[in-house]
Each structure stands twice: as structure tokens, then as C-alpha cells.
Specification:
Blueprint: E1 6-9, E2 13-16, H1 21-25, E3 37-41, E4 46-51, E5 68-73, E6 78-83, E7 88-90, E8 99-101, E9 106-108, E10 122-125, E11 129-130, E12 138-144, E13 147-148, E14 163-170, E15 179-185, E16 192-198, E17 200-207, E18 215-216, E19 220-225
Antiparallel strand pairs: 1-2, 3-4, 4-5, 5-6, 7-8, 8-9, 10-17, 11-17, 12-16, 12-19, 13-18, 14-15, 14-17
């Protein structure tokens, strides 16, 4: 991690194309840059950096401590970001799970599906998706979800295996999402009916249920060109 880019060494130093570059470096506390460190989560093909942001109060307008992370998944060549306070990390190897610390505690990572007995709020959310370069309105009518609930805790009833799948539509980038269709998706859900119109749309899959482990596959959405009215 450099001051404005990410790099990889494969015999020579090269820049890694980064889709979240502005998100990271425009909210980065450079006065605390010495605290940035990288870690590896080899089970999921991830390299990540914990860094201090400028979102909270602190010395020189920053947080003083690492409170954000940015992850590069080198298997899938994708980036994702989030908030988590960590000061050190060691990948699995000697121990069964990765270990990390904050200023007070040592944590087991990737163990179980919950946050030490309480449910995570876990989600995946897309940026706006244009259809035909956003020049025409489209109508979203149906969705075939593709969610796997493998490896959910066996002590939890299968009736609790569900996620909330939301599709959102917007008329323009400045207008934001104005309409949302929300549906519960379970292991037996085959089809969701909806009615959304806009120039672009986005999706969000979320779970707040204890013990649930879910994985997003390739959902299919029935999209048709529609008029302005």
C-alpha cells in the first residue's frame, strides 16, 4: 500500500488496478500512516490493509488508530472495504484460525458464523448497475435468487436460514435510489415477483439471523426496456 496506489511484486513492481482507490485514499489519516499494516487470509485468497481514517475526531482530524480496512481478493480480482479496529494479524498455520488484536483483546477470526454468540449484520451491496448505458428506462419484473445456506449451524432451525434480498431502482445518479423491492429468501425460494422502474438499479443481500451462513451465487433478474412514464 503506497500513498495513493496499491502495488504487487512479481519480479518487478507493478500497480494493482483498484476500484476503491478514491474511497480509501480520500479518507486516509496520513499523519498516522506508520500504523498501517497488511495481513493475509489465505483460506479466502485475501490480502488486506488496516488503516486509520479521517471520519472521527482525533489528532489532526483523524482517528489516531486503525479503524478501516481494504481487502484485495487475489483469487477473484475484486476489492471490498469495511470498518474494523485491528492492530495486528497472523494468518492460520500454527493455530487453526487467524488471530488478530485490537488495543484490548485477541480475536479468533473465521470461527463459526456469529460474533461471539450474537448475530452478525452481514451484507453484500452493489453499486448502481446501468442497462444499455443508462440511456433508457427499464422494468424489473421477476428475480430468481441464488443463495446457498451450506454450513449454517446445525443447532439452528432451517426455518431461520434466510436472507433479505433488496433490489433498488433510480432515475438518475443525483436522484439516488427512490424505489426498493424487498423479499425474504430461504432455501426453498424459487422466484420473487417485483415491479421496479429506473435507468439503473442496485442489489443488496443481508442477514441478521444468528447461526446463518450464506453465500451469494448468480441471481437472475428479468429486465425489460420500458418507457419514461
Amino acid at each position: 500500500m503506497g500513498y495513493d496506489r496499491f502495488y504487487v511484486y512479481d519480479g518487478r513492481v507493478q500497480v494493482i488496478p483498484c476500484s476503491v482507490r478514491d474511497h480509501v485514499f480520500q479518507n486516509f489519516n496520513e499523519t498516522q500512516s506508520d500504523k498501517v499494516f497488511a495481513g493475509v487470509n489465505s483460506a479466502f485468497g485475501e490480502v488486506f490493509w488496516f488503516y486509520p481514517s479521517e471520519t472521527n475526531s482525533g489528532a489532526n482530524g483523524g482517528t489516531d488508530e486503525n479503524d478501516k480496512y481494504v481487502i484485495y481478493n487475489y483469487d477473484q480480482k475484486i476489492w471490498y472495504v469495511g470498518s474494523l479496529a485491528r492492530t495486528s494479524w497472523v494468518d492460520r498455520g500454527v493455530y487453526q484460525y487467524p488471530l488478530s488484536t485490537d488495543s484490548n483483546l485477541v480475536y479468533n477470526h473465521e470461527k463459526g458464523n456469529d460474533n461471539d454468540g450474537t448475530a452478525f449484520t452481514s451484507f453484500i451491496e452493489s453499486s448502481p448497475i446501468d442497462v444499455q448505458e443508462g440511456n433508457q428506462f427499464v422494468l424489473l419484473r421477476r428475480m430468481i435468487p441464488d443463495i446457498s445456506f451450506d454450513n449454517s449451524d446445525t443447532g439452528i432451525s432451517t426455518d431461520n436460514n434466510q436472507t433479505v434480498f433488496s433490489l433498488k431502482a433510480q432515475r438518475s445518479p443525483a436522484g439516488g435510489f427512490i424505489k426498493t423491492s424487498t423479499n425474504n429468501v430461504t432455501p426453498t425460494t424459487e422466484l420473487n415477483h417485483l415491479r421496479l422502474r429506473g435507468r439503473s438499479f442496485g442489489l443488496r443481500v443481508e442477514s441478521t439471523t444468528q447461526g446463518v451462513n450464506w453465500r451469494l451465487g448468480t441471481p437472475r433478474v428479468d429486465v425489460r426496456v420500458d418507457g419514461d412514464r
